[in-house]
Specification:
about 210 residues; alpha/beta; Nucleotidyltransferase, domain 5; 5 helices; about 30% helix; globular
């Protein structure tokens, strides 16, 4: 199970999505936006409370995926006792991973999400209050190719269109597409359940 957080700033929402795998299908079972202006310590508390609640309900340890691009660098240090992967969204072409810190091009995130929707591999629980907002955000994206550089980038069709829910779900779906990562658990110990590799040693452990 993936809890994915796209952190907002002054004029952007912080968006949270929860993705649960059911066989070959990924189901978006939770969508949430925090009110604009919510203090970051309160956001951390809300995220941690959701993490603990889902862990208790589903009897499994979720992976928390956090957008580290902007303010996320400071938020990472406030999170304790969670299995964590932090993603820095880049405009480049190469994915790099250094332990729990990943650098991922934005186009990889969005392209992967679009393909999964088109092939029916990811489903949204339509009863979720923000389900229609997510769908509208996805439809408002396009890929623009810079004819000078040949580079492509994803952007909203119009200025003022938020992309927080799209990026939240895209990050979660991207991480879930990999074999179970061994992101380490912040705090007293490390939970390696269902992990393939230890991020600190690179040794196969299960």
């Amino acid at each position: 199970m993936i809890i994915s957080v796209d952190l907002g700033q002054a004029t952007d929402f912080t968006a949270i999505s929860v993705i649960k795998r059911e066989g070959e299908e990924l189901q978006v079972i939770h969508l949430e936006r925090f009110p604009l202006g919510m203090a970051y310590p309160e956001q951390v508390k809300r995220i941690t409370d959701l993490y603990k609640k889902l862990k208790e309900i589903y009897k499994e340890v979720p992976t928390l995926v956090l957008d580290r691009t902007g303010v996320g660098r400071g938020i990472v240090d406030l999170l304790q006792d969670v299995r964590l992967i932090s993603i820095t969204i880049t405009g480049g072409n190469v994915v790099t991973k250094d332990g729990r810190n990943w650098n991922v091009p934005k186009r990889d995130l969005i392209h992967g999400l679009v393909v999964q929707f088109q092939t029916g591999k990811i489903k949204i629980v339509r009863s979720l209050p923000d389900a229609e907002i997510l769908i509208k955000e996805l439809l408002n994206f396009k890929m623009k190719v810079n004819i000078t550089t040949g580079h492509d980038s994803y952007e909203a069709w119009r200025e003022g269109i938020h992309d927080d829910l799209v990026l939240s779900v895209a990050m979660g779906a991207y991480v879930e597409s990999f074999p179970k990562p061994c992101a380490f658990v912040r705090g007293r110990d490390r939970n390696r359940t269902n992990c393939l590799y230890s991020v600190d040693s690179g040794r196969r452990i299960g």
